[in-house]
Amino acid sequence: MPKTLYDKLWEEHHITTLESSESLIYIDRQYLHEVTSPQAFEGLTKKDLLPWRINANIATPVHNVPTERGKSFGAENIKDEISKIQVVELDKNCNKFGIKQFDITSINQGIVHVIGPELGYTLPGMTIVCGDSHTSTHGAFGCLAMGIGTSEVEHVLATQTLKVSKLKNMRVKFDGIPKEGVTSKDIVLYLIRTIGTAGGNGHAIEFAGSYIENISMEARMTICNMSIEAGAKVGLIAPDSITFNYVKKHSQLSDEDFDNAMTHWKSLVSDERALFDKEINIDVSKIKPQVTWGTSPEMVVDFDQDIPNLDSVITENKRNFELAKKIHGNRRKSESY
Length: 337
What we know:
This protein is 35% helix and 18% strand. It has helices spanning 5-13, 38-46, 81-97, 112-118, 150-159, 184-195, 210-213, 217-225, 241-250, 255-265, 310-328, and strands at 14-17, 23-26, 29-32, 57-59, 100-101, 127-130, 144-147, 161-164, 168-175, 203-208, 234-236, 278-283, 290-292, 300-302, 333-336. The chain contains 11 helices and 15 strands. The strands form 4 sheets. A 5-stranded parallel beta sheet has the order 5-4-3-6-7, sandwiched between helices. It is globular. The protein is α/β, with parallel strands linked by helices.
């Protein structure tokens, strides 16, 4: 039976189906940061547990790190007391449990979804989790990557597994050549504007099409990062030569290991006749630079449009809601924009 990329990744990591109809899947990599990890580490301590696979976890402080700091700047120098406590606790927990951390003094400290790929810890075909919704960023490398809650962070630390329900499949095809000045952020904002922030609910979105095939890994990461703003838990892109060249440059794999891995990585594509529950086709040549104007990611207009009034917003939201219902109710329903 033809399978989607998401189906393949799911089946490779599926352990068992539970009585609740949820599944237990194996997790290859967990990224940790200072906000959602303290309670997880505290839970391990109270239960007298140790991480199941220490080397599968990588940590860095992200949300409470000052933008401006000197070479000798440490966690103790953070002025905000709550921020300081969170960063200090991450240091303590990583030291206590032996987890590799790029701390606030490290030149490799940075945004957790960026340093993972840049330092070679994100590899095609992995299942990746982090206590941050934008973990979907790693899907740009052909990974099944998703954000999780604090109790789940603890569960992954203790068992290297995650209890989760399988998602439906959705494919968004971006075809065409964008106008000058239009970036990947404009492209994905146009998608969110079109289908609404609930358009991807319950789905893993695979991004495909000629536009995707010709953009950089950084642009792909931007699009997968924003899939969460469209309501999807997972966004992913099949790995190709652009992916492999990036990984070869950044990974810590030997030439032999890389070549062996490539044999498998090349199979991480949706089969030609794979079924998607939902399909969206977008011609990127029609997209102008986008501007967000409100409190929701779907509140987007072309840069040369007027900001809409409240009545038109209500009408547009209703239209998006009805469109989402329509697509949900028709398997393999394809919409073009």
